[in-house]
Batch of 4 targets.
Target 1
Amino acid sequence: MTTTTTFSPRLLALGCVGAAAFALPAHAQDAETARKLGGVTVTDTAIEDSYKPDTVTNPLVTQPLRDTPRTVTVLDKTFLDDVQAVSFTEALRNVPGITLGVGEGGAGSGDFINLRGFDASNDIAIDGFADRLQYSRSDVFNLEQIEVYKGANTAFSGAGGAAGLINLVSKRAVAETFVRADAGVGNRDWLRGTVDANVLLDEGKGIAARLNLMAHDQGVAGRDFVGRSRFGIAPSLAFGLGQDTTLTASLQYQEDDNLIDYGVPVLANGTPANFPLSNYYGWRNIDFEDQELLIATVTLDHKISDIVSLTGGVRWGEVRREAVWSTPRPTSQASLQAAVDAIDAGNPAGANYVIGGPQGFGRISRNEVAAARAAVVIDHPTRPGGIGNSLAIGAEVSRESLDRDTISTTGLAGTSRNLFAPAPDFAGPITQTRTFGQFANEADRIAAYAFDTLKIGEALQVSLGGRFERFDVTLGGTNYAALATREFSEDLFSWQAGVVWKPAETASLYVSYSDARQPQTLGATATGTVTTANAALPALKNENYEIGAKVDLFDEQLALTAAVFRNQRVNQPITVDGDIALAGRQRVQGVELSATGNITDAWQVFAAYTFLDSEIQRASTADALIVGEELAGAPRHSGTVWSTYDTGLGLRLGGGFNYVGEFNTRNSTLANQAWQGGDYLLLNAMVEYRFTDNLVLQVNANNLANERFLERIRANDGYVIAVPGEGRTVMGTLRVSF
């Protein structure tokens, strides 16, 4: 298929604002700011609360971000607070190149993430510990920042990693005393309260405790009946802060109570239906989601000498979830088309269609993970004109498990429903049945890795790293009773390499390569489906090539980055003349640009743009028509701009937008069914007034123009369903700190 790029006014606006972010005049910074890190006061030129982080928490990334040969997007707490992104999906909306989908079980049952054209739903970590089980990571109250490492790389993340890695960095006790309490209200009954309190109990011994609390309840603007309610608590205790040995213990508990939203039905050919996008097509008196999360972590950091340090930790986590959902999909396109025609003919009361499955389908699941890791970092500083070296060597071991039952409901199938004004409650009798033991899966991993960065003088750095991983999975339960073999093992090796040349201390040019290995059974411990045929196949392989440049301007307060990349799957399973062969090929190449940090002491900016050019290059014999199509979930254009300005009079103003261009929602055997998700532009604004140093009022308006758009889309050959994005949401937050 030949793709023609058209530049809409929205896209033109994106380009103009993005160009402005890269072409602003220089303003030197004069004042030095002292900041505290683990009880040690460090003096540098960093501006307090800047959007620009210099480093990430991953111990395998031994160099500053400016000298790291890959694209890394970091959303820190200051930025998340300013844009009032309180949920995981709201935060990821600010990362260009990411699209969201409707995961199995509905939008509320998991984080279905597409990054650079490939599925990244299982490529999520918390503080470096793999967290591949699918559940709703619904709130960011206990996060310090979100780190998005882009491009295939299982050397970093372990098995999977076709698109990259999303690392969530938790809040931990620090060597200072503070209390911050936020209370927020908004439209659609939006209510939120958080407390973040840290106490330095013993300065000499470096003992501190921290407690994070969150309570949140809201309706969803632009959606009828949909509600989200959650509560969380996260204590943390640290010993030895600022000393050679630091021990930290933390706990996070969160419970969610939601009404699952599977969205609205859409005609398979993409023709928009003339009904309110606010309509709810589930059953309010049947559908629900209850989720409980508990994570316990202990970490140890020990400085052996000036050049040698040890880091390690153990984690145990559990997710319990019970949910029932009903989808808006029709039994047939003809049934849905008849309802659409009735609306167009001025007969909305007669716009009835027959709903298909699943209706009243549910799951009761328990996911558990136990993991341990340790690494030694040896950092020889570079002497003038000499050679330096940074080496990280480590190992990881983990076990993941999933036990799952199903809930089925009779009495709903074949129900006729009004497309224009669906009734929210089911009036007839139903019968629900629980089937035990559908899934009883376990996955074990053991890995060893090494990453080395050789510094030759002040201008040249060469990095090389690799990971060997043993992946074992046992598939149990009735879902896999027909499998001839239920135990699978695979040895995986992945690697990365990069060269960085520094023409100046504040600039770097780089080239890098990395690959990713994804076992066919990787999704089995979550919601993936495994067959005898695909489980026996070798791991999928992705490769990422990247060339880029990074420079810090304005006394190192503003970071500019630019990269050209190619991320490709080279052995997608396809059917050739009736046999499965690892001969499929998919390619995504593109450009990423960003500007992050401070232009002046008063002016902050976060701007990023991604261009994706994707293509299916080889496919199954029966799917010949999709060769040349773009990959599903890979918009050609996407970008974010956000900027704030402090007037110096207690008033701070902010604003920006999120833009996502059109993208394919599926790859069909019929070329004319590659349905396009429409582009959308969300305008956002913020006003903050500081009454005193300890009392601040912040008002945010997200989706200021009340853009109606479809954000999470699930499309198969027979149907399309989509979850509309939130409408205009205005929130006021009173923040007290001392």
Target 2
Amino acid sequence: MNNIRSTLAIVWRIAAPYFRSEDKLAGRVLLAAVIAIELSLVGINVLLNEWNNRFYNALQEKNWEVFVRQIGIFCILATFYIALSVYQLYLNQWLQIRWRQWMTRRYLGEWLHDANHYRMQLQGDAADNPDQRISDDVKLFVDQTLGLGVGLLSSVVTLASFVVILWGLSAESPLTISGHAFAIPGYLVWGALIYAVFGTALTQWIGSPLVNLSFEQQRFEADFRFNLVRVRENSEQVALLRGESAERQRLSERFGRVVENWYAIMSRTKRLTAFTSSYSQAAVIFPYILVAPAYFGNKIQLGGMMQTASAFSSVQQALSFFVSIYRSLAEWRAVVARLSGFEMSIASAMTQATQAPSIGVVSSAGSDKIDLNKLLVSLPHGTPLVSADGFSIRTNERTLVTGPSGAGKSTLFRAIAGIWPFGSGSIAIPARAKLMMLPQRPYFPLGSLKAAIVYPAEASAFSSDRVRDVLIAVGLPQLASRLEEDAHWNRMLSLGEQQRLGIARALLHAPQYLFLDEATASLDEASEAALYHLLREKLPATTVVSIGHRSTLAALHQRNVVLSRDGDRFALQNRREDVKQP
């Protein structure tokens, strides 16, 4: 019961926001329509149950007129049943897509808000494969929640409706054993209840491991798919290193987990199916066994027997709802657990950005420099990495940051960008200042070359002529005629060409502060110097801060800052300041 209450509480937390959202009117109307149609279908089933009595009595009595009339009534009821079923499916699918659309937008917004997606990666494996959770799990959650919810409602209403009928039929066809009638009030209802409780208990005992198995299967499938994508994205490196055999081994191991878990699901499903199938088949004949003595004792007619069997079947199915949907319920609980974990991981990532101790990035009105005050940048588990106090990045000054590998130079840039919360102290940035970070390997979204260059702005934000001029300026005139070509540019271009495109992006956006994290390391020294001179010429008001290891970079900057060992961390120290501008 605790597990049920916990699961329902999680489902309510995930599902309820949609029905309180800006789309709540459409969602509530569609849900109400689906429920109303389901209740109408139950009502038609009640009418069909009564029809069974009249129809089979007409057959027994060979009453042609009643037989023809009942055929006509059946056609009318069947027409309404078919029409309602069709529109219930249509409205259900309409509600599904609106609900899924809202949840997808919400999860995308929260996942991509303020670098949450990045901090979630730093947390480890708390929410693996967010792509699967947003695409597959949201779809399954909406589909299965509606299906199970409407099915449960139908079972409850069916039970309430047919219990009354079955109780009355118990009096009309008393329990008969060896020709002796026993007046047991509602014995058919008690028989259906005992049968359902027995089936439910055994189903839970046999099928309970399917919940965890289904959860693991989704995780293993997503992990296998993710690693396939990684091989595709890094196919050049794999080919250069002749890593096909290693990748095949790694992928085989991950797929082996899929197969192994699937065999476990197969074994458990075989047992569950063997029981549920036996249970369902026995349920067909069980009511006839109960009422057959009364029928052959001439206490009820054929119509009463058929109505009793139909009512018993409806009550038994309603009581056995858990048995019939157990496999779907196990999969649904796994989906709920994955979405719940995803939401908690997002919430944790949001908290990391603000909870103490954390690095505070604040806006400083009237300031013309970035100030690092009592800053301590740490690793996610708390190990100190970089410290700086009273350090400033001055406007219109080109600064070079150097230090040994692993000293935390890139992590310091991430902290300044506001995506690395681990640590303490504060970073004051001039109000409304625009920062841009260029890593060693720039990111280019799939699409046209123009859209890739101007990212994250829209392609229409800059004219094609402006983008062509910038391409020529950074030394890529051969790409000027390919702006509208769609391609995977991170794979199509060399790393040097990608770094030139990164500089082109900076020239277009013209930030107040430009941070270059070895953003020209793949270029030769002459090309690197030419791009730095281009930045100074085209962006004279931009403050450039670079990370690099080449000695030639020192001549291209006015200030050299080094990260040197200071106890258990590295500290920023000025090596050379206020030299002549190169």
Target 3
Amino acid sequence: MSLRLIKLFRHHVPALVAIVALLIVQATSELALPSFMSEIVDVGIQQGGIASAAPDAMRADTLAQLERFMPTGDAAVVEAAYAPADEAGVRAYQGSAADAREGSALEASLARAEAQALAAATGQDAGKLTDTMTEQMAVQFVRAEYEAQGRDLADVQYAYLGSTAATMFALCLVGLACAVAVGAIASRTAATIARDLRRDTFRKVMSFSPAEVNRFSQASLITRCTNDIQQLQMTATLFMRMVLYAPIMGVVAVMRVVQTSTGLEWTIGVAVISVCAVVGVLVGFTMPRFKRMQRLIDRVNLVAREMLDGLMPIRAFGRQAHELERFDDVSRELMETQLFTNRSMSFMMPLMMLVMNCVTVLIVWFGAHGVSDGVMQVGDMMAFMSYTMQIVMAFMILTMVAVMLPRAEVAAERIDEVATCESSIREPVRPELPAADTPRGELSFSHVSFRYPDADDEVVSDVSFTTRAGQMTGIIGSTGSGKSTLVQLIPRLYDVTAGSVALDGVDVRAWPLGELRRRIGYIPQQGRLFSGTIESNVRFAGDSVSEADARRAADIAQATGFIEGREGGWDSEVSQGGSNVSGGQRQRLAIARALAKRPEVAVFDDSFSALDYKTDAALREAIARELTDTAVVVVAQRVATIMHAHEIIVLDDGRVVGRGTHEELLRSCPEYLEIAESQLSAAELGLVEEGGER
């Protein structure tokens, strides 16, 4: 895994340690099962449940017979291991049966003596016996001894099989418990990682200025906060449950294989090399397509978002078929990429099964020769086969997960791009606040210029003006003259590239960002509402907005009438984006939301465009009457909206071409006169009545 993916676990080391410990126990438990299976075949079935050359009980004359084939020292040890004979002449074994099964000196001595005794009785050459043959002959001797004592051999076999089966069942329960615990810890840890990533990524996105949002695009940011993080969550789960388990399983299996000493270890090398070759070829084909897939998902999201946002103009112009075809093109490209990767990866499992089956055939073929030569038992061959399959499976798991890592790596890289992206709007290093005696609501532009990132020309150039509490400053100009850009500098949606914007005598770049925006009420061109109720939207600024503030703001925004006329009134539902209210109602609610927090500066960015003339006039009159302690900046396309402002700024191509009142500009500014003549009659140009009515 790459460093980016490993960093996901830096706060979850205890969980990883616990998972590794549980996986070691699980692997040890599961890999002990093949050895018990081998014992069931070799001991429980072939040897009739006789696991040791040291019988539980031995007749005195049998012991005496065996001592003749032992050195003096070994005979003394065997003599001491069995109690004195009882009335039936049987001596009970006093040593540890477990020690005998582990190959103690006592068992070895007895096995050799029993094999030699049996060989002498059958006329075989004891010098040609292999270890396996010696063990089998010792078992035959013990079986004959039990029969001579009158014991039921079936009971001996059933007792051994029952105890071994119970042990295997207990190991299965241990492995199951560990697997469940690992799954629970891994799922919780991965979910926690995803939660933290979503929180941190979304928090970072919320700190972005419009410049950073435009750099990534809204569709891409949504994908990064959802699909990409989901990919990392899945990868984290696989890492903890499979990637960590595979090497542990492989190491434990190799240790078991080394202990068996079957001479077939070379088959493991063949299997591993074959698996790596298969996966290497497949990864080489699919890696580029995995990296491309996330970009295609971004494109699908982008086109779908554009279509949904522009549904009305698409229908109005009858472009449904064209847009559906455009969406189908990007969707088909994503589908073709996914089909290529899925079809390529579909070859992996059949090829892996072919490798595993070929390795199984090799083990059976060469293992059968070992069994025939008497150097290996059937159970040992079966156990070795199980261990080999576990090793191959471990490599297969690692390689299959490795195929998924490119997509996760791309997702991690995309999220890291968001996390490391520095916002162009930053908190000041040394925040400043105005002195207590500073006049409140004084907004000043001083030789302000602004250029968008990577743009060649300035959008706003050398703009200066000052407005104070109780005053209204209007800004007007042709489309694209920089009006909206200019007022977006006030709440620091963008920062000036030259000059300064000051609030209450302090540069807005020196204000704490939260405090600055708390004092500014900004109403954008498109008044976007949030899902909830009318009251929750108007009181969106938080608990600082009282119910009385909300009602006052609604009165100023001329929204009280339609709010109280709706079923449910203030508690009536507002759908996402405010799609269940009209454009004018949406704008009035957006105005009320900004005024409810009683800002020092109220910025209306062409916020009256959806209002009729009567409502526009009533709203302007209410603003002039109620906002006596607030500086008001109004961007407008209508001359009627700003003609009563204390000062009007006329912009043309980002430059101030006129300043003054309505009457002054009609006489001194040709650009303003041209706009006014296009909207007002000759009689209206000279008529300004009290209260804002023409």
Target 4
Amino acid sequence: MEWLTYLLKVTTCTALFFGFYLVVLRKLTFFKINRFYLLASLFLSFIIPALQLEVKREMPMLETELVDMPDLKPIQPAPVQLIQPIMVEYQPEVTSKIDWVGIMAYAYSGIAFLLLLLCLLRLFVLLKHTWNYTKNSSGLKLITKTEGFTNCSFFNYVFINDADLSATDLSVLLKHEQVHARQYHSIDKIILMVFKSVLWFNPIVYLYDKALEQAHEYEADEITSADYGSGAYANLLLKLAISKSNMPLIHNFVKSPIKARIKMLFHAKSKNMKKLMYLLAIPVAVGLVWLFAVQVVYAQNIKDESKPSKDFYEGALKGKVLNIKKETIGLYTFDLLSDGKIYPIEATNFKEKIKVGDELIVYISGKGFIMKKTDKSGKVIAETNGPIYNVSKVTTLTGSLIYEQKIENHAFLYEANKARSASSKIKSIEKNVNGKIEKIVLNDGLFTINLNLKVQNIHNNYLKIGDHVLVKFIGEKLVSKNTYTTDKMIVLYSEPKKYTIKNEALYNRFYFSDGKQKVAVVKNEAAKVLEPVEPKIISFKKMTGDVQHKVSYLENVVIDISNCRLEARYVELDQANNKMIAKNASLKNSKQNVMVKSNLMTFDLKKGDYRIDIGDETKTGNDLEKLINSIAYIDNIDNSDAAYSARDSVKMSRDRSIVTLYGKAKLDYKNFTISADEATYNKNTEKITAKNLILRNKLTGITTIGSYGEFDINGKVEVWQGNK
């Protein structure tokens, strides 16, 4: 579409330049200057729209807040009930869209090419007649010709019909054509032929052609009539006023309108002072440059300290989007040109809101790093070519918000034993006259938790205001926005663990003496009568069927089954035996936040039970959603380097950046395999913490056992024995 915009800008420039010529310059007798103006304005009409100039205007940094927006859920069409195929092969109907812009591009290019080809053909026809000539004393090459194009010239070739000309008439004609040859007017003719081919749709370019040819003839008439007299020269023009030639590359002696040429012969010459009128063309050119070539950029004041160092950057970058691409790991990125450097920026969440050439301010949230994608065995199957930078915010140069990262905050998390757990800071401590703690107020900067400890008879002088603590509790109540209160604190630890406040009765109810969680045993329930399962097809790319045996084969299919979403590369649906097989498939629960991947899934639709192969392990059951949540196997779902699973449960923040695993947690991370009672993976900080863990180094085979461990993105590992 850019080519069309460019051509429209060129057309606008030609119209304004030629309009100025008609109104101001056409009647002036400075024919050489008029010729130069016409040619120069044509070239400028092509150059000005191609220019890209910036005018920078500084403005103060704007603080932009994103207004709370309601959650909008995509509208999905009603599920399609599975029906028995009635054809051997079926392709879903695809509505074709006509690419009118593409058709216009081909049509324009085709016509322009044909016109250029016609120019070359005419030039070839003209040059065929130039082999035999007679050269006169003025350097003109005379070619006698009695039909077709005669009494005309092309460069220094002059085609004459001397049978109808006297010696005097021939002398005048040759003098006229000599002017054309010495002023190289034929070059102008060739240039105009090219312009007319490229701008064939623009009527202004044809007016340019006529005006330029008229300037040529006026110039030749002026010089020739100075030697022979205006009256005699006008009589010769009338005498040779014959039919016009259709050869556009030549200068025919009488091709231009005779009346206008004779009138100009007797027109009073313009005074030299009027040459200043040509300076009026400068504002026209400047106006077009401002209109089509200048982009005003409102630059925000970015502090010097926010500029990047050699290998680490955190702050604001101002630059231009060079390209937008999809990486091999599945993420979308764009290259930002800033201060002569190129920064690859991750843009998966806002790629539709930017385009190449946009001027942006990008707020980098940390050091760029190479992103990798691994298979279940830990083998790297794809990785980025270099470090990719994550952003916390993206705006235009004027401060309009394009994207802002929102990290969901939680007042507390749930443990497998249903106890609440929160890390916070002590805001205040209230004690009675005896020095016993009655209330501790915690605040992490967003959430407040009031711990009412009056009945617990606690005496502790070690905890101070401002200390970081880890608290576990139950029975909380929301008393106001982001404020909770409870009188059932279980335990409170200082961080690091030096001091402890413990409610022994509650602690023994939820934890063993070694700190491990007590998880309630699930009571045996009466067996449920299984009901048939009916899959609902949402979409597919291709379906083939065996009508006789009632078997359907689907490719790239999405199916809803038992409140879960199945996406598979291939599905075989046997309606006669109520069986369904899915290959290269993934299953998501109803909340779409936990996913199971498998090379083979088998469904018994009549009994309602399932068989899912995950690596070397096979999972079976009849509650598909419960099965998914219990497996909770996430294989690079967030394109991180970690894959993990847990026995009891997996908790996630809404943006899926923080994952907490409870009960026999297993986690593959880079070169390490971790088994722990509890583990937390934070994508934002790139840190993993684990409790009561067994750590195995895949490279060395060394196994380490500890009560607490921390791991970060740089591969730093720390494991403690005893309390941390």
